[in-house]
Structures are given as C-alpha cells and as structure tokens.
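INFO  loader      accepted 1 record
INFO  loader      residues=228
INFO  predictor   begin
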Amino acid sequence: MNKIDDGKIFETIIVSLLKLLSFLFLLGGVLFTVLGMFGDSGFFMSLFTPDFNVIWKITGVLGFLIGFAATLAVTYFSFMVIWKRAVQLGEKEYTGLLEYLYMKVAPTLIVTVGEVASIMLLAYGLLSLIGELIGSVVYFPLMQIVEGPVMVGSIGYDYFVEMLVAGPVMGIVGAVLVLVGTYIALEVYAFACRLVRVWIKWLPKFAIPIAIRRREIPGDQKFMEDQK
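INFO  predictor   done
INFO  writer      dumping tokens
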C-alpha cells in the first residue's frame, strides 16, 4: 500500500518492464540463433547447395561456428546492457511520475537503445570482416530483427573491396556514429529539458504583468477615474 500511496508503484512497473524486455531480448536472440539454422531460408539450406564447391562449404561451416558463438555472445551482452540500465533506473530517486518519466526514464531509454544498436552494428561489421577475409558467409541470424538474411559476408573474393566497404566498414563506422550520436542526443534532450524548466519557472513572472495590463477596469471605477 505504501508504494501505491507515494506513487512508487509506477517506478516498480517501469523498471520491471525494462527487466522483462531484457529477458525477452535474450530469449529472442536464442530463438533466432536456433531457428535461423533451418528452414528454406536457413543457413544450412543456403550453404549446402550445388552451386557451392567443397572449399566454400568448409569455410561456410567455419563461418557458422564463428557466427553461432558470436551471436550468442552479442545476445547475452545486449541482455546485460538492458538489465544493467534497468537496475540503474531502479536505484534512481523517485520524486513523482512526470519528473521520473522525463528526467529518469527517457534518458535511460535513449542510452539503452543506442548502446544495443551500436553493439548490433559492431557485431555486423566484425562478422562481415571475418566473412570477407575467409571468402565465405558467416552466420548472424540477429539480422532477422531488421528482416535481413541469416548470414553476412560473401562467397569468394570477386568483389572484395566493394563488399569490404558495404559490410565491415559501414558496420564498424556505423556503430561508432550511433554510439556518439546517442550521447549527443542525450545532451540535446537534457538541454531541451532545462529550457522547458526555465520557461516554466519564468512563465508566471511574465504572465502576471500581462494579466495586469489586460485587466479591465470595472465600470464604477472607470466612471470615478473620468470624473477626476
């Protein structure tokens, strides 16, 4: 009852939802990792086709083992990031629902989304680099989150430079830019919040003189003023 009376029930709900999201991400990552191996568009169905020679299949299996381990590591690391942010949010002081939402929850969500996105991009870039170096595809089923394929990289070295720029460079550089952009967005959001607080603080001081100037003088007072 105390949590309901002081409003901290909302804090508990929000923190619990964020923790639940971390577990859903962990479970979803594991499911993507398992299900991405099979099916018509699965990794093995794409790898073991007549178009792939023995060397490509061997390097493809190597790419699968590397990607399988990396995908589980990325999933767990992202889970830990979300969980850590949820715990940190729960440790922050609750002073009211509105202030808690825009001063505590919103910045936490901005940082969490940015960090997870940068982790995904970095993993994509590094696994793409491995794929280009071994001349084969690498298993990365988390690409399905954005409706992508279950693998990165390319077969052979015919378009090595082009694929190096399209995959590894864009992924790694993109991860850095997203992370930097996240903390820039956090600073911009904090600055915008300060502006709003200043505006709210000074609003009564501007509103009172305006109200006085616009106040209509009652009829009897106006008559007395005219007589003077």
